[in-house]
Specification:
There is one protein chain. This protein has 13 helices and five strands. The chain has about 325 residues and is mainly α. The chain folds into two domains: about 5-180 and about 295-325, Rossmann fold (3-Layer(aba) Sandwich); about 210-290, Tyrosyl-Transfer RNA Synthetase (Orthogonal Bundle). The strands form two sheets. Strands 1-2-3 form a three-stranded parallel sheet. Strands 4-5 form a two-stranded parallel ribbon. The radius of gyration is 20 Å and the shape is globular. The structure holds adenosine-5'-tetraphosphate. Adenosine-5'-tetraphosphate binds near residues 8, 145, 149 and 195.
Length: about 325
């Protein structure tokens, strides 16, 4: 059976882009593949975050994943730091990766562009190596992610292949599974950049848990362009194309089919707003139920960590032995 793994950071507020690009796929994948999903709290430490916030967010994000449809009887849901093998394999892979290839990572370049690279955390720089460890530990075949993760996945494949060449066949080389529609949900106020937890303004992003009337208002006020033609063309009409994609994801129609049905922006915005509100409603309802029983969420995570560790420990041992680490007697 194909093995799936993906993760999400317990930082900021989970937004529509995270849901459409990733979580929605995960809920589908779990029924077809042997699936592992994790809240990647170690990655969250690569930026400023208060210890109390990190603890609370980790459980909240796990509850959001359950609300988004992950079923702990079907998939394995866990917290990254509960399986220490992630950090250990991260070290081993850091001894395979090069400074040059990490410097080319656009997310690192973007996040340090305005600041001083010298002051950036080492964890932000080595983040993609830990992400590769997250994936390779589970002999993962398929990694469902948004388009922004394409480059990190390429690095993961390069590291796996280099390791296998140098030390013998050890890792499965994974493929990214990027959705055809909704792989890059754009910021509603600046549709030339992706909707982002850290960089979008409050009006530019729709939060998964915000009230329906707020969601609808943000979409109705989305920036489009000065033409009056509804056409699906992300390169020249990013705002309109983003609305068509969101409506498409929520209704199951393709953005191209939808473009033919509209000749004005107003009705497109109104329909996209109403459709996204309905699309999010079941997740919001389930989340409210789960938020009353966080003890249940923590029990799910404890069971998930046990299942995950059983797989991760075997892979770490295989990788360490291949590199020449002396097994403990
Ligand atoms: N705009 C997006 N469209 C589609 N997919 C997206 N993802 C993120 N943004 C979009 C996907 O969400 C998953 C979880 O990503 P993450 O934990 O790396 O989230 P993040 O990077 O903290 O979220 P942001 O908003 O991307 O944060 P910042 O502002 O820090 O850059 C991934 O599969 C990702 O592809």
């Amino acid at each position: 059976m194909t093995r799936v793994l993906s993760g999400i950071q317990p930082t900021g507020e989970i937004h529509l882009g995270n849901y459409v690009g990733a979580l929605r796929q995960w809920a589908l994948d779990q029924h077809e593949h042997d699936s592992f999903f994790c809240v990647v709290d170690l990655h969250a430490l690569s930026a400023d975050i208060e210890p109390e916030t990190l603890r609370a967010k980790t459980v909240e994000v796990a509850a959001i994943l359950l609300a988004a449809g992950l079923d702990p009887d079907v998939c394995t849901l866990f917290v990254q730091s509960h399986v220490h093998e992630h950090a250990e394999l991260g070290w081993l892979l850091g001894c395979v990766a090069s400074m040059g290839e990490l410097r080319r990572m656009t997310q690192f370049k973007d996040k340090t562009a305005k600041g001083d690279e010298g002051a950036a955390r080492v964890g932000l720089f080595t983040y993609p190596v830990l992400q590769a460890a997250d994936i390779l530990l589970y002999d993962t075949d398929r990694v469902p992610v948004g388009a922004d993760q394409r480059q990190h996945l390429e690095l993961c494949r390069d590291l796996a292949q280099r390791f296998n060449q140098r030390y013998g066949e050890t890792f499965v080389v994974p493929d990214a599974a990027i959705p055809k529609v909704g792989a890059r949900v754009m910021d509603l106020q600046d549709p030339t950049m992706k909707m982002s937890k850290s960089r979008s303004s409050p009006q530019g992003k729709v939060l998964l848990l915000e009230p329906p009337e707020v969601v609808a208002k943000k979409i109705r006020r989305a920036v489009t362009d000065n033409e009056a033609e509804v056409r699906y063309d992300p390169a020249t009409k990013p705002g309109v194309s983003n609305l068509l994609e969101l409506l498409g994801v929520a209704t199951g129609a393709t953005p191209q089919e939808l473009a033919d049905k509209y000749d004005q922006y107003g009705p497109l915005k109104a329909d996209a707003a109403a459709a996204v509100v309905e699309f999010l409603r079941p997740v919001q309802t389930r989340f409210r139920e789960l938020a009353d029983d966080l003890g249940h969420v923590e029990r799910v995570l404890a069971k998930g960590a046990e299942k995950a560790q059983a797989v991760a420990a075997r892979t770490l041992h295989r990788a360490g032995s291949a590199m020449g680490l002396l097994p403990r007697r």
